[in-house]
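Pilot study result, target chain (281 residues):
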Amino acid sequence: MGAWWVLALGVIPAVFFFVSAVQTESERIRLRARVMGRLYAARAKMRSRSEESELQTLFYAADIPWKVSTYRMLRWMIVAFLLVWAGFQVFHRQLWGVLPPLFFVVLTEPHKGFPMHSLLLLLQKQATKKRNRSVYLLYRLLYQEVLVFQDRPVSVYDLLRRQWPRVPRLAPFLQRCLLTYVENPKASLERFAEEVGTKQAKTLTDMLWQMEEGGAKVALDVFQANYESFQADRKADFKAKISARSLLATGLVMVGLLALDRDINVLVQIYTSHILQSAMK
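Predicted structure:
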């Protein structure tokens, strides 16, 4: 094997120098340009695939069931329709018709710095909150199962298989996890946490792996040890929800007071004008 490497290290430079010697200057320039062009094309393709993968991950995290290719196809179909419509408007001397295609292209561009990317991040945040609620529900269901079956223990696989229909939002992730759980429990749990993509999902999978390693005798201890962390996250989420509702209620009260003040002013004006009309009679 070592001899082949030595031969390759000797032959490749020899071929390169031979080709360089027999080629003219223009041929060398064309060859160099061709090689560099292919390298740049390969690099651009790799960068495009990387951006496509990141965008698909963002779609997935935001609970958008579309593929990036589907989104781009629909986007450009709408752009084509808007361009035809804009051409029709310009033909009738309505130059404002060119604005909708431009606005649509800018608003639907999903990369960083554009409104669509901010919208995707907002949807991802909302999806994370919903998944965290589902993970907490799964935790409570598993905790109840552990309490009920502590005298006759149940395996982690059976626990998940019994509970996944009760958590619809996590059902696809749990089904994929259970398909390979028997062959490789740790990898299946790690994939479940990665697909759900939340901190609580990672904590729950760590707990389940501890149960898988330690057996039924440590199941109750594991759930009780992590009870406070799950409760803390739920309390923080509840406080944030209460704060948002309080701000909304305060805003509505202010709007109501402004409307009431305006109504009172209108009533005073009507009453005053009526008094003046009565006095003039």
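One observation from the pilot: The chain has a mean pLDDT of 75. A full batch analysis is planned for the follow-on phase.
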